[in-house]
Amino acid sequence: MAMKHTSRPxxxxxxxxxxxxxxxxxxxxSIQIRSQPDxxxxxxxxxxxxxxxxxxxxxxxxxxxxxxxxxxxxxxxxLLEINPLDGEITPWLASRTxxxxxxxxDMTIRDGVEWSDGTPMTPADVVxxxxxxxxxxxxxxKGAWQHIDTIEQQGxxxxxxxxxxxxxxxxxxxxxxxxxxxxxSTVDDPTTFRxxxxxxxxxxxxxxxxxxxxxxxxxxxxWQAEKIxxxxxxxxxxxxxxxxxxxxxxxxxSFISDVEGTWGAASxxxxxxxxxxxxxxxxxxxxxxxxxxxNVRRGIALALDRGPIAESATEGYLEPAGQTGLIxxxxxxxxxxxxxxxxxxxxxxxxxxxxxxxxxxxxxxxxMVGPDGQQLRITILTANGYxxxxxxxxxxxxxxxxxxxxxxxxxxxxxxxxxAIANGEFDMAMGGMGNGNVYQxxxxxxxxxxxxxxxxxxAANFERFSDPEVDQLLDDWKATTDxxxxxxxxxxxxxxxxxxxxxxxxxxxxxxGLFNDSKFTGWPSAENPYxxxxxxxxxxxxxxxxxxxxxxEGDDK
Length: 557
Hints:
The chain is an alpha+beta fold. The two termini are about 40 Å apart. It has 16 helices and 22 strands. The strands form 6 sheets. The protein has a 7-stranded mixed β-sheet with strand order 8-9-10-1-11-20-12, with helices on one face. Helix 8 (about 295-305) packs antiparallel against helix 10 (about 350-360), helix 13 packs antiparallel against helix 14 (about 470-480) and helix 14 packs antiparallel against helix 15. InterPro entries: Peptide/Ni-bd (IPR030678), SBP_5 (IPR039424), SBP_5_dom (IPR000914).
């Protein structure tokens, strides 16, 4: 998530997809399931579980629409590639980015790039794209025009003049997808245009298409064509968790229960990597008593043993999370070394009881009783079908119940959950914090611009935290290009999260990368975390350039 850059409410970090009947079957199956690659799919072709029909595919390759086909982001490219794990930037359609001052971004547009119809891609296409999403704000998925004042072209440079000092805006602007002026300028209504025959700058072009499956073909004129060793991609519409294990996918993205005993055992070439991608935690509604009392929040935080919570939620694949707002080890270079234990709060029941006592709560028998003589009751909101969250909150209920807190669980459908957190209509909710970009993580969590009144929708800061001093820290960070100053501001904001507990961190939510090495190698891994293992959004663009074909006897390449 990024600073006020969405035009609609967004769900908080979710650790895993809902469990399906197939997943339950896999988890309890005593018969060994094997993955048998389709012999009709060649060694130069990747079978990829990355898109889902509903139940069939709509032929929609407009990269600005939310219901687009996943492969749209492999056809159209951004100015910058950003690793969601650690925020590392790779120049993409912009070969260089300079910040002459805190409110100016100067991007050098890469020379020699062609659209897949052979037309050169130029800086004018970049300016056109930004003008297009300004004129049609629903297409501005990254919220670039919330930061831009004006744009000008200077030769092969595109210069963005910002509304205010706003250094972090570079990454938001850089993730905007660029489209060709010579084709899109003829579109009557780009907000409804399905773009059935897409022309982009990316590594693949659209191949065969049907409602059940579509294919992508290697773009021979791609500006990094020498790095692409995949000739074709096949994306089926049907890909439940049983399919994921048995169908012979080269790349999938899914949480699977007992992944070692299912995906891992199905083929000796199957690999998986589940890096932390966010902090899952309890989001208190700071507009409501008693959650507006930091001592109550501290009491809850200290009463919890995060080890069993993480084990229950993620089957041991992810670790307990710290209380700094950072994702470790991804962002360990940004961690304030003065914060003890990497920010992880150990269970301290005596400390919890002391914190509750500061708020006027005492244990009376088996109940935690407040100044009004009533037992402390907490309703925790989660979403129906988010099974990892449900397991976590059930463990939380048991642990808090042990000190006398009555915890109720409310689990509406995901749309109802998202509406409730966006509108502030909850007591406490499962949710999270964290982002590959440290500034964006703290901005989304703490910026009072997002702290709308209860009943009004917000896109971030769902807990409604507000502190003028913290807002000033965020503004100071936006105004400096000095990395050391930025790190110092990061330290200060970590301590705010650690001390004031706007969200109570529990465990890391994972990114669920499943790979097969039989045809392609070079996947991101813990040893080489060059990109998040997700096969959606813009991450695959970099991954495709890193993959190498396995040479097999009889190969013609």
